[in-house]
Amino acid sequence: TMTDPVQAPTKARLLDGPALWPAQAHVPTVIGRQLIIERGEGSYVFTSDGRRLFDGTAGLWHANIGHSHPELARAAYEQMMRLETHHIFARFTNDKAHALGERLAGLAPFERAKVILNSGGSDAIDVACKLARRHWQREGRSSKKVILSREFAYHGLHAYGTSIAGLEFNREGYGTDSLVPETARVSFNDAGQVARVVDEIGAENIAAIVTEPIQGTGGVNPPVPGYLEAIQRICRENDILLILDEVITGFGRTGKMFAAERYGIQPDLLTFAKGITSGYAPLGGVLVSPRIWEPFYVDSPATPIFRHGATYAGHATASAVALAHLEILERDQLIPRVGDLERVLHRELAGLDAGHSGVIEVRSAGLLGGVTLADHLSAEAIADDLIELGFISRPLRGNTLQISPPFIISDDELVSYVQAIGHAINERE
Ligand code: PLP
Prior knowledge:
Elements: H1 11-15, H2 27-30, E1 37-41, E2 44-47, E3 52-54, H3 58-61, H4 70-82, H5 95-107, E4 114-118, H6 121-138, E5 146-150, H7 159-163, E6 183-186, H8 191-201, E7 206-211, H9 227-238, E8 241-245, H10 259-263, E9 269-272, E10 284-288, H11 290-293, H12 316-331, H13 334-355, E11 359-365, E12 368-373, H14 379-389, E13 395-396, E14 400-403, H15 411-428
Parallel strand pairs: 5-6, 5-7, 7-8, 8-9
Antiparallel strand pairs: 1-2, 2-3, 4-10, 9-10, 11-12, 12-14, 13-14
Helix pairs in contact: 4-12, 5-12, 8-9, 13-15, 14-15
Bound molecules: pyridoxal-5'-phosphate.
Pyridoxal-5'-phosphate binds at residues 60, 120-122, 125, 154-156, 212, 216-217, 245, 247-248, 273, 284.
């Protein structure tokens, strides 16, 4: 039998609760019930109350090479002993950020990429959206400001990410429809609808379309066949920039370095974070195509400046960790390994779907899966049950369970994980 890990607290205990605010959660629901993760090792995490849990979500889709990797700990230590960081404004740069720029340009899914580095995915989205608007302003087409995003989209929660959120609850409560003016939502699966919205708003008013290749937080929604290609065509035909948000999919999650390669898409801007360091350092950034960066590199006093810099842009320790991490991904052949695991996941999810009336739909691409449950089952409750069984999943939009384990798992571990989900469903049916 399965029980809640900890009793819900009384109201008094709540107000007297811990100082650390679990933002993005319903506080009365989570305070007193939080499991404290104290340690990680490979694909497992360990809690203060003695549990060993299979990390079936890789934290927040980030821990791709697993937890507590000694080589990355060493890379961070060695870099900090030399230089924690140095800013990259004007006359200065630092060797590690510089080297990481070269490395990323070589991995980019388009030619001659430039790289902007910062601290995470939300940051990267802010930069990409600013750069898209800056681009058209500089071109003398300053009416092109609207940023289109898809329903159910998640692009982090900085100002732009909040404003372009396709999950409504992330956009609400700030007194306007969006913090940043001039954003609009389009269909997540109907490219015809996107074309109609573009016509209604007018291409002369639209700066960019932002899309995750595979929606993550929106429920693990791989693109409907042809959708991304159609979006790319709409962008090209209407002089609209395409921003591909690869914060989850970048660095191997779909079996390719970038999902852009998997789906044959060439964005103008590509955002990344999480998987560049597997979370060993907070780092994100944007790959920028020549069309956008070239005007900023012209040898003339009149050349414009992209006014976006931060203390931690190009953080040396984060960059050193990223370089070491990319070496490990390659040396240990972890991205091709995702290709193998993709087939196992696909097969096991098909079995889960066939064997359980409580499963409405399963979706997967690469090592990313979603299991949508019937209304009489609650993904939240099943995720709680799974913790009791020793597995971490997470409820996403649409009564869906998230599956996104580290790349280092065995076939058997993946099979056991999906079986555990089946078992938890059986217990509640
Ligand atoms: N974009 C996507 C697609 C994401 O999934 C996330 C985070 O989950 C973000 C952006 C925001 O990244 P961060 O949480 O590093 O700010």
